[in-house]
Write a structure and sequence with these properties.
Order of helices and strands: EHHEHHEHEHEHEHHHHHEHEH
Structural class: alpha/beta
Strand order of the largest sheet: 1-2-3-4-5-6-7-8
Largest sheet: 8 strands, parallel, barrel
Number of helices: 14
Distance between the termini: 10 Å
Helix content: 40-55%
Shape: globular
Length: 334
Amino acid sequence: MSRIKTCVSLYSLQDEYLNKRMSLKDILWFLKNNGVEGIEILPDQMIHGAPNPSEETFAAWDEMIKETGMTPVIADVFLNTNLYNNRTLTRRECVDLLVQEVKMADRLGIKLLRLVSMTPYDVLEPLLPTLEKYQVTVALEIHAGMAFDIPQTQAFIEEMKRLNSPYIGLVIDTGIFCRRLPRVVANYNMSIGGTSEIYDFVNARFDEGIDMKQYFAANGWTDEFKALIKNGVDEFFAHTSDGYENLPYTVLDEYMPYIKHFHFKLFEMTEEGVEYSMDYKGLLEYLHEKHYDGYVSTEYEGNRFVPAGEPMMEKEQVLAHQAYIRKCLKEIQG
């Protein structure tokens, strides 16, 4: 029996926040009033002064959490190893930055940190004493385009297994489980001059049960594919088209003991009440069978593909996605 819980990444409401239609407090109350259990936060985005906020900022956070009763589940942190133009950060500098993030998370009442893809594996062992002291877990995001076959990801996983600590794990981004290209991506690109043929080609690969990452691995950039690139918009999409992967759920089998959290990527909720590009009921059934005990977090990214002049529907999309997940869980878990 699984114990799957739902939360929302506040990344999903970034346009509301950026354009000051909603404050952080407004967002927490909005989610609370609509039955959301927990939140995922990007401190760099919504916690002033992160990773070293003032006591005043911490106190304001404490008050918001107390008032709303929301559960802070996870914080997404970034390790900018390219902070300087002339060199990458040393391991010691990386560890020092992550120690600050761990201390901040603990103070915010958060016991899980998402590490961005490509985080160097060699920070884990020197960071471990801090993780144990504060009882905070770090988990590498397995992201579409940078999934299990990437050397840096494999190196992290090997070190994770070697250290065998409950404070080191993985976050799975479900962009690796696309079953077709998100429609909003093609529509947006065509609204700024992209041509339809390249999207038809990509969707044909999905119809074959593969994706563009697999296609490129087997064939490279074929003349057929290159001929579809008519302008700069097509060129940009061509280079990012392998960022929507089509893997079987069973790719997670060996990693289930290490998985701490899921990003349930949301590109578009349809009028039929399902996500256009992914089969979330199928994934939830898989997780239920595997006895997954953790959160699945709505992460809306369709907001970056809204054509000019069309309304931003972040709140509506998030609530529709949460309703769909809960409906699936009720059917699966009873």
